Amino acid sequence: MKNRAILLKLIEHIDKIQSYCKDNSYESFSKNSQLVEACVFNLSQMGEMVNRLDDEFIEKHNDIPWRQIRGLRNRIIHDYEGVNLYLVWEVIKNDLPNLRDTLIKI
Asked: Residue 80: its pLDDT value, please?
């Protein structure tokens, strides 16, 4: 049950980010500090949630880039000023939709 609740929270964070960014280009995203902060916060929360998953669950679903999700969280938390916004945008637009689809199937 714990892992299922975490998956639902991950999907919720993805949905928030996608909702915030749906009508934006990279240019508008990068110039809107509130939007950037909201998205980066949700991405960091996703990394926190992944840290709470059971090791067995992570091993069972090793097709999901858990390490990269945690790694992005660590970059955000430990070097916020140095976060590459284009990388964040690419994650939002290219990786999160696929991740969401995969999480829903679990």
From this structure: 58
